[in-house]
Design brief:
Layout (H helix, E strand, L loop, with lengths): L11 H9 L2 H15 L4 H10 L7 E5 L6 H12 L3 E2 L1 H6 L3 H12 L6 H12 L2 H6 L1 E4 L5 H9 L6 E6 L2 H10 E3 L6 E3 L8 H6 L8 H21 L4 E5 L4 H12 L12 E5 L6 H12 L2 E4 H10 L3 H11 L6 H12 L2 H6 L1 E4 L5 H9 L6 E6 L2 H9 L1 E3 L6 E3 L8 H6 L8 H21 L4 E4 L4 H13 L17
Parallel strand pairs: 1-3, 1-4, 2-3, 4-7, 8-10, 8-11, 9-10, 11-14
Antiparallel strand pairs: 5-6, 12-13
Length: 488
């Protein structure tokens, strides 16, 4: 055989490894750093960066108008993700002595701190050990589009920017009652959120520069600049309504930073749809396959095709199917392995339904290199399943399928000759439901990162949710890193 015409063999583990370790995204990040910093020795620079490469670190900026709650939101995010909370005041007070001298000189001259100096202050602080190891949460900066662009010019680009919004009238009302604990810097309000501890109340002070005229002036400046700031961060920002309970603001902010931006790295979808009979797995698989041009893998259909093709596997499986006996797992995996190893499935991806049904099958799928990168459990109440399946019937003359509730026959003669599939009897449906729920918990534990979908709604609504989860990276679960053993 001509060697140039041999089918290319692709190890399925290649894609798994690249996606699991973020190879393509790592390459993109390193090239971006290289072009930003332009070191004299690129190879040494890349080597040093690879030793400390970690893209899981939070890099968050919280901006918004005065008195919108930036400090509180940033502080809670910092606590949740275990990253340093950096406010402009903290950065100034913690700056190296030479930078503080420059800041004091500008202040004594009666001018503001220039953007170039602010960028140096922030870049110096973000370059320290704690930020490199744990990420950072920046509060209240940048304040202008020019500052945002200056930060980008030195390679400081937040992964997530949270923009708080609230009516100006509410902000003015908040400013009048704002109080600050000078020790903890925690923010309180005389009307909306006042501490019950008398010792804390006694410490609270009214912040400087919070007069009505000052806040109005700052609001005018904010509205003048916010459009340009959003434009600078248009691909990574999210607005959050600050005129709601703190817990709601915080939960929305954390939900956003838990979601990475879409990656431009090559991605081969490997999707599992799990759920009870009648959940609509086949419908959703068809929609996914049609939209994304992936291979629709129905395990029952694979078995039938193997039998009809009279392959060795088909002949081995046929007696089990004819006697209505469960096909052994090793034969099932052989059929699935054969299909998933074909070039179209390896290069285009696949969506599978009807398998796995237990934890052993799930483990076998992973061990053979066909680990799914998205798993969905389609949840439907049993009474809805019975309604969907037991009321189905087929016209033996025309082959038309009907449903007595959703798509009833229009004439009595058609209704009289309808035939129900024996598998749709209530007894058979309940058996299949029992078989699924017998292993549901262990499958949920095995696929702990799986998404749960309410499938008791319009199929296209279900598909919209599944689609949004397929095209976006899965949410992060933040965990506190282990304490450092030794500071370099």
């Amino acid at each position: 055989m001509d060697a140039t015409k041999r089918p290319i063999q692709i190890n399925p583990e290649f894609a798994n490894y690249a996606e699991e370790h973020g190879i393509f995204d790592m390459y993109k990040r390193l090239m971006s750093k290289l072009l930003t910093d332009m070191p004299e020795d690129p190879l040494v620079y890349l080597y040093e960066n690879l030793k400390q490469e970690n893209d899981d670190l939070p890099q968050v900026a919280v901006i918004g108008p005065p008195v919108s709650g930036k400090w509180c939101v940033a502080h809670k995010i910092s606590t949740t993700v275990n990253s340093p909370h950096l406010s402009p005041d903290d950065i100034l007070s913690d700056a190296p002595k030479e930078l503080q001298l420059e800041v004091n000189r500008y202040i004594q001259e009666g001018g503001g701190i220039p953007d170039e100096l602010w960028v140096r202050l922030i870049n110096e602080r973000l370059g320290r050990y704690d930020c490199k190891r744990q990420g950072w949460v920046l509060d209240g900066f940048p304040e202008t589009p020019e500052q945002a662009k200056a930060l980008q010019a030195v390679g400081v680009m937040p992964k997530h920017v949270i923009v708080l919004e609230a009516p100006d009238t509410l902000l003015l009302e908040r400013a009048e009652g704002k109080r600050v604990d000078p020790e903890t810097k925690e923010v309180w309000h005389k009307i909306f959120d006042y501490p019950t501890d008398l010792s804390v109340q006694e410490k609270l002070v009214e912040p400087a520069n919070y007069t009505h005229e000052t806040i109005v002036s700052r609001l005018v400046d904010y509205h003048r600049h916010i459009g340009g700031i959003i434009q600078a961060y248009k691909h990574v920002y999210k607005t959050v309504n600050g005129d709601q309970p703190k817990s709601d603001v915080f939960s929305q902010a954390v939900a956003y930073i838990s979601q990475d931006a879409r990656s431009q790295a090559p991605n081969t979808p490997r999707v599992l749809l799990l759920g009870p009979t009648g959940a609509g797995k086949a419908v959703q698989a068809a929609l996914i396959a049609s939209k994304y041009n992936v291979i629709n893998i129905s395990v029952p259909q694979l078995i039938q095709q193997a039998i009809e093709g009279e392959s060795k596997l088909g002949l081995a499986i046929k007696p089990y199917v004819e006697q209505d006996i469960t096909v052994p797992d090793h034969l099932l995996m052989a059929v699935i392995r054969e299909r998933l190893s074909q070039m179209d499935a390896l290069t285009r991806g696949w969506v599978m339904h009807g398998f796995p049904k237990n934890i052993d099958q799930a483990a076998s799928l992973d061990q053979d290199g066909f680990k799914p990168n998205r798993v969905f459990f389609l949840d439907v109440p049993n009474d809805i399943v019975l309604e969907r399946l037991t009321l189905r019937a087929t016209d033996p003359v025309s082959g038309e399928r009907y449903h007595m509730l959703y798509n009833p026959p229009i004439t009595q003669p058609i209704k009289d000759r309808l035939v129900q599939n024996p598998r749709d009897s209530e007894e058979e449906v309940r058996k299949r439901l029992a078989a699924f729920y017998a292993y549901q918990e262990e499958l949920q534990d095995y696929y702990s990162q799986a998404a749960r979908v309410n499938a008791d709604q319009d199929p296209h609504t279900v598909f919209e949710y599944i689609e949004s989860t397929i095209v976006n990276p899965p949410p992060k679960k933040f965990a506190a890193p282990p304490p450092p053993t030794e500071k370099p």
